[in-house]
Design goal:
Distance between the termini: 14 Å
Mean pLDDT: 87
Shape: globular
Order of helices and strands: HEEEEEEHH
Structural class: alpha+beta
Helix content: 25-40%
Largest sheet: 2 strands, antiparallel
Low-confidence stretches: none
């Protein structure tokens, strides 16, 4: 869970404070090309317009010998599960499905 809080801060610039008992760990999923994604869900309130992404460096265009900086994320927002399914990477869809299932059951009390 501390990893999730740290990643949130690194990738969005937003610091959240969620107690251990208010996290829901989700099952690992594999997205192409073989990257394992481990995720947690937690409840926090923040304005997505305040997101300030960190940058990563990559050679661009490929094989050009030139490195450029790009934001890790382009923007954030609040979405329904239906809207999120349209926006999320296909390999991460199982995370949404699992979270939706847990929140519709007794897991909703965990957040």
């Amino acid at each position: 869970m501390t990893e999730a809080v740290r990643e949130m801060k690194e990738e969005t610039g937003i610091e959240i404070s969620i107690s251990k008992q208010h996290f829901i760990q989700l099952k690992e999923v594999m997205q192409n090309p073989g990257k394992m994604v481990l995720a947690w869900a937690g409840k926090a309130d923040f304005n997505p317009e305040e997101i300030k992404s960190n940058l990563f460096e990559i050679e661009w265009p490929p094989k050009s010998g030139k490195n450029q900086l790009f934001p890790e994320i382009d923007k954030g927002g609040w979405f329904s599960f239906e809207e999120a399914r349209k926006k999320i990477l296909a390999g991460q869809t199982p995370l949404l499905e699992e979270l939706e299932e847990k929140l519709s059951g007794s897991g909703a009390d965990d957040l």
